[in-house]
Amino acid sequence: MSSPLADQIRPLDLNDVVGQSHLIGEGKLLTKIVESGYLPNMIFYGPSGVGKTTVARIIAGKTHKKLFKLNGTSASTADIREIIGQVDTFGGYQGIVLYLDEIQYLNKKQQQSLLEYIENGTITLIASTTENPYFYIYNAILSRSTVFEFKPVQTEEVEKVIERAFEMMQRQLHVTLTVEQDVKHYIAKHCGGDVRKSLNIVELCCLAGEPVSPEKRRITMEIAKQLSQKSNIRHDRDGDEHYDCISALQKSIRGSDENAALHYLARLLEAGDLLSPCRRLLVVASEDIGLAYPQAISIVKACVDSALQLGLPEAMIPLAQAVVLLATAPKSNSSYLGIHRAIEDVRNGKGNGFPRCLQNRHFDSAEKEVKGQFYQYAHDFPNHYVQQQYFPDDLVGTVYYEYGLNKNEQAAKTYWEKIKGKSSN
């Protein structure tokens, strides 16, 4: 075989593409664009192996314009200049389509060099990226392009491709393949929605299959499991998958769904990422549980310390304890909101100087008409409280912290209303 199975089985028509039913199919956006005969600048965004490159090639191939292909991982400025140089040639008089895979690897200057030609329509850009385009692609290009998001392919759709792949491998190897029950489904389920990954596993399974005779091979579940390994895990420590998983972990805890939270913790740990969940759980303890259960931060800190000392795989035990504790605990973001309000005032230039009673110096400058610090020591008064000015003059009366409705904060509110002899917020 001269090329990988994934390239050999790549569809040549949109009707043969699996998945992406939200974009491809009768009446769907991409299909309608192809049928219209008009080709706009497009950026395909999504994880690996879900059809971005395939769809881009199919669409680009249907135009009568001159087609160029570049990959952002290897393309140089000279390569881009060479394409631009074709604009005024006979071959490029009808326009040029540039299919640019992994556009996020081009630097800003390289992307900018295409801008003029994209804007006047001389070059039509079809780009693909696995990273969030709004972070990695130059804004001027984004504003002149339509972004389409591709999603992981569902298991049943992947299974259809796997069926065709085994048939192709059987013909190429000139053998009869006997595939054990559920092997195809297992591979489809454990590829993480990545069609290319599933096809690579199929190819390896066929090459490593148990020989029954010179003309027959058996593909067992054991072989499929060994070759699949952890292929269902999508995780990139610096990419969208990483941040999506961290975000999903915190939002599941905030939403009090302990089961979903454990799922996202498991995905992080199975990818070998121990530090990220440790850091995030410490944040969650204060940001989302806060004063509703103040002891949570201490317990989580102990769990995190234990996890870091134990290392993987045992670290999953104390971290699971922390996740379940936080997810099932009462929630409050009152202190989190309070500090954000205070920071906003500081950034807006509010809060100048200090009340004299709070200053560290114990003497007055010559221009002060009324001398003295006049600080009242709270512990010298009943209930360790005395009313005096604590805010700078321009912020007197400002409220940052509002008591949450949970048991702990309401108890504190009741206490201080009684002590201060007035209604609190």
Give the key terms.
single chain, 425 residues, alpha/beta, 5-stranded parallel sheet, 3-stranded mixed sheet
Structure overview:
The mean pLDDT is 86. The protein has a five-stranded parallel β-sheet with strand order 2-3-4-1-5, with helices on both faces. The relative contact order is 0.07. It has helices at 5-8, 29-36, 52-61, 77-84, 108-112, 115-119, 133-136, 139-142, 155-173, 183-189, 195-207, 221-228, 240-254, 258-270, 275-289, 296-310, 316-328, 334-347, 407-420, and strands at residues 42-45, 66-71, 96-101, 123-129, 146-149, 176-179, 210-213, 216-219. The chain contains 19 helices and eight strands. The protein has 425 residues and is of the alpha/beta class. 46% of the residues lie in helices and 9% in strands. The radius of gyration is 31 Å and the shape is flat. Helix 4 (77-84) links the parallel strand 2 and strand 3 (96-101).
How are the elements arranged and paired?
Blueprint: H1 5-8, H2 29-36, E1 42-45, H3 52-61, E2 66-71, H4 77-84, E3 96-101, H5 108-112, H6 115-119, E4 123-129, H7 133-136, H8 139-142, E5 146-149, H9 155-173, E6 176-179, H10 183-189, H11 195-207, E7 210-213, E8 216-219, H12 221-228, H13 240-254, H14 258-270, H15 275-289, H16 296-310, H17 316-328, H18 334-347, H19 407-420
Parallel strand pairs: 1-4, 1-5, 2-3, 3-4, 6-8
Antiparallel strand pairs: 7-8
